[in-house]
Amino acid sequence: MLGLAPRLTARLTEMGITTPTPIQTQAIPHAMNGRDVMGLAQTGTGKTAAFGLPLIHTLSKAGVKPAPKHVHGLVLAPTRELVRQIYDNMRDFTKGSHLKIHMVVGGVSLNRQAQELGRGTDLLIATPGRLIDLLDRRAVSLSKARFLVLDEADQMLDMGFIHALRRIAPLLPAERQTMLFSATMPKLMADLAKDYLNAPVRVEVSRPGVAVDRIRQSLHFVEKAGKPTLLKELLTTHPGDKALVFARTKHGSEKLMKKLRQDGFDAGSIHGNKSQGQRDRAIAAFKAGDITVLVATDVAARGIDIENVGFVYNFDLPNVPENYVHRIGRTARAGADGASVAFCAPEEMSELAAIQKAMNKRIPVEGGAPWPTAAGTQANGGKTTGRPSGNRRRRRPGRGAGHKKAA
Predict the structure, then answer these.
(1) Fewer beta carbons within 10 Å, N or C terminal of the chain?
(2) pLDDT tens digit sequence for 116-162
(3) 170 near 145, Cβ under 8 Å?
(4) Are the beta carbons of 318 and 300 closer than 8 angstroms?
């Protein structure tokens, strides 16, 4: 497949992967030829394999054992959950091979990570902050790293990791292959590519900011105080289906999770105040179906790859409009259908306007009517007609005409 080594192709066949996705079809041949690659694609399109498989192919073919503390390839990702997802995929791809794969994230013993890296590693997947901690301790060297991958690079910029990247990149050899993958392309991304990539090939399989077509989106205008009640009502319409609920703050996520438990839902939460172990256990329980509602902050927007998430609820609208697309991309994965439901309080009208502008699309309204804005207009267009009724009959989310139950 796409010129990959027979052993690697056989492993993919064992995993049931026989047909590459569009981003893989476009990116892998260029990566195999040693070109720098800038890949733009929505979440859930197979970006990890698009950069991971060429790395594994090349590292396996080289057959050079890494020296103590040294790394041959480096993948940087902005969140612990995304690092874990990439690591798990890489371990699956390399099962039965000699390659050593390690991950380093915060919330885990620094000493233990230093000991593991002391034996050398072929491929290291890391969050920038924890990698810098290990570099400062001289527990790892990047001087022989011939490959650098920046995954979800736009989110790294949003989270302020540009300063960390400026410290890390010069520690790698100037002669290296660099790949940058992202779902959006803000101006800062173009600047980043100019600084760190050498004559990159740009591959793009979908226009940045466009939500996955299979996701049925809907919008409810509701007062902030009424959001918990509305969420409970909507969750009750699809009992047993996995639902991912996004809240804006760590405190708000925890409070909402506890309220859902009081209302009888099997709910868990992940956010920055949780230890890595707590976050891992919550995600594992969600995957297994032991909990059916997972409340999260944007720390999880790009780090969760879980099958059969039927519904995504934007309990709070995100401050960064692109994050809306990443959030709802947690459903409708691997060819399944899915639904997203957004709640908009009066104070969130500007966020809604920014989201719809970024998507160049209006989200269909299923409850209430647009709140008046400061300019006296509505986010969905037209003049205000007074306070929304809030009594509009709500349709069951994701169950409109022609919509199939989420797989």
Answers:
(1) C
(2) 999 999 999 999 999 999 999 999 999 999 999 999 887 787 667 88
(3) no
(4) no
* pTM, rounded to two decimals: 0.69
Top-level CATH class of 6-204? alpha beta
Here the tokens at position 228 are 């918990």
| Residue 278 burial by Cβ neighbours in a 10 Å radius (0-12, 13-18, 19+) | middle
| Six token digits for residue 304 | 């969760």
Q: Which two tokens stand for residue 310?
A: 């039927």
Give yes or no on whether 6-204 and 215-367 have one common fold: yes
Cα–Cα dist 284/54, whole Å:
29
pLDDT in tens, 1-43: 678 999 999 999 999 888 898 999 999 999 999 999 999 877 6
Q: From the first residue on, what is the mean pLDDT of each consecutive set of 10 residues in the chain (407 residues)?
A: 86 90 93 93 81 95 91 94 92 92 92 95 96 96 96 78 90 95 74 87 72 82 96 95 94 95 95 83 91 88 74 94 83 75 96 90 92 61 41 45 34
For domain 215-367, the CATH architecture is: 3-Layer(aba) Sandwich (3.40)
Beta strand residue intervals within 78-235, DSSP E: 101-104, 121-126, 147-151, 177-182, 201-204, 215-221
| Distance in angstroms (rounded) separating the CA atoms of residues 67 and 65 | 6
Look at strands 365-367 and 215-221 and give their pairing. Answer: parallel
Query: What is the H or E stretch that residue 341 is in?
Result: strand 338-344
| Residue 341: φ, ψ to 5° | -130, 125
Helix, strand, coil content of the chain in percent (nearest 5): 40, 20, 45
What residue spans define the domains of the chain?
6-204, 215-367
Distances (CA, A) of 3 to 20, 30, 104: 12, 11, 31
